[in-house]
Each structure stands twice: as structure tokens, then as C-alpha cells.
Amino acid sequence: MRKRATTIYDIAQHAQVSVSTVSRVMNGHDTVHPELRTRVEHAIHELRFRPNRIAQTLYHRRSNTIGCILPDITNPYFAQLFLQLEVGASELGYTVILGNTTSNPDLEQTLVRSLVERQVDGLLLLGGLTNHPEPPEAGVQAVREVAERLPIVAVNGDLPGVDLLCSVTSDEAGGMRSVLTHLQGRGHTKVAFLGGDSSVTSSLEKLAVYREFYPNALPEWVHFTGLTIRAGEEALHRLGQASQRPTALVCINDLVAAGVLKAARDEGFDVPGDFSVVGFDDVFLAQVMCPPLTSVNHNYAELARQAISALVAGMEGRKPERVIRVPTLLVERQSVSG
């Protein structure tokens, strides 16, 4: 049979103090005599006491938990960002509960409400609604209702019309400019844009920067095929039908770049000999691709630190800046010639 869980009454009896004294020690009050505090602490250690988190949440109206909702934890970009968010939250004494929507808008709404019911102290929203150019009204309303009750921080996204606490974003437009400037500095004037999704604001933002740099680019050099490895393969196959071959390919993310490199190998192209390839996100795969991929790093640790700091500020009643932008970092590797 399982042993009965230790209670504060057991602690009080073991330490030969009152239950109220145990409660004051556990809640950090400084009115307890040092000798009594020591006896209580020894009793807690000896009896291996673990506080009842549900009871503590009801008493303090704080659960020390943060909800985090994202579209796909198997995507290395979200995995890398979530890891940094979890580390940052842990350093401040918070536990993160993950909600994975599998890119399903209905499930996203359900998870938002479910995490609120679990008494989280705040929410982090990544992707999904906050990265959609025309988010569905039902989803917006669900977040709007929650934002009236708890602080919500969007990471690399936003939700206009909703009273979010803060939007913390990496400067993706700046990152795109740094990539294109790098290519121009290496002598590349014929550059294609591969991958992307018209239902994702960051794809549209990157494409807009590309248009600034190359307003006269051939239409057949732009292929909005998606965000996956398969999308990269498809984009390169389509590019093969172009009347002119570009000397460099800018990919919407590193997964698309991985697909481009795979298709290039299958078709007998040399990278960067025949054309250069760059990615975006600088996920761990970028280092082990062949050749290693030049990419843009979101400055993940700083992005996460800013997001967690903003959310904790909101949970403590302080108001951070509405929009916080974190600079990205260009990481040069061997996939660019010149």
C-alpha cells in the first residue's frame, strides 16, 4: 500500500510547534522565532514534505506556472525557442505548461481556455493566431476574453485589436535585409526567393523586403511553396523551369533550405559552386547540412529572456513596452560563394 502523504499537521507534531507556525514558515513570514523556524525546516526535510501546489494556488492566487501555446513542437524553430523560454522561466521559479496545437485553430482556442482553467499565471503565444494576417474572429475573441483576466505575451507575432500585454519579436525584416546585403556584397544580383506561406505574416514580411531589394526580379524566381523540407524540394524543381538561373537562393527558413540542398544534390548541382543557398532561423540542422548553411539566428536566448521578463512584469502588475524588438544575428557558413 502507498504511504499516506505528509501534511503540515505531521510537520507541526514532529517539530512540536503549532500548525500556524508551520504555515508561517512555509509562507515566508519573518515573524517566526529562529529556533522554531529551524525546527520546522528540519521536520520538513526529515519527513520529505512536498507542498500541495493546488492548495498553495488557492491560498496565494498564484500557481507559478506559465502556459505556452505553439503550432508544432517538432518544428526545430519552435523547439529551439521553447527550450529557451522554459530555461528562462525556470530560472525565475516558474514551470511552463506546453500546449501544442498541431496548427489546428480550433485546438488553439481550446488550449487557450484549458490553460486558463488550470490557473496559469500568464500565457505565451507563439505562431498560430498571432502570426496570421487575417486571424479567424472566433480565435481572436477567445484570446480577447482571456486577455481581460491574465497577461498574454505574443512571441514573434501580435494580435491587433486585442489588449495583449506585449509583443516580443525578433527583427525578421532586419534579418532578411542582412542576408540580402550579404549576398549583394558577395556579388549576387540574380537572387530567387523560395518557400513561404501566404497565411503567415513573417513570410509576407520577408517577401516584402526581398521585393525592396529586387523589384525587377523575374516572377519565376519567386515560389511560395510552404515551410517544409518538401516545400524546398518542390521550389527548386519549379525554379528549374525558369528562363534564367539565379546565382543565389534565399529560403524562407532552414527546413526549406534543407529541401533545396537535397534536391540540388539529387539533380547534380554543386552548392555553392552552381548557386548559393541561404536559410533563416539558424536551427541546429543548419550546422550539419552539406554544405553548412548561412542563416539568420533569432537571438533565441535574448528573445526568450525579453518575453519571460515582460510576462513576469505583467504578472507582478507592471506594464512593459507594448512592442519589444530583438535584433537578429547573421551566421555565415559555407553555403555562399563569392
Automatic annotation (TrEMBL):
Q: Give the matching SMART domains.
A: HTH_LACI
Arranged from A to Z, the UniProt key words for this protein are: DNA-binding, Transcription, Transcription regulation
HTH lacI-type domain location is 6-60
Q: Which Gene3D superfamilies match?
A: 3.40.50.2300, lambda repressor-like DNA-binding domains (1.10.260.40)
State the superkingdom.
Bacteria
Q: Which residues cross the membrane?
A: none
The name this protein goes by in its record: LacI family transcriptional regulator
Organism of derivation: Deinococcus malanensis
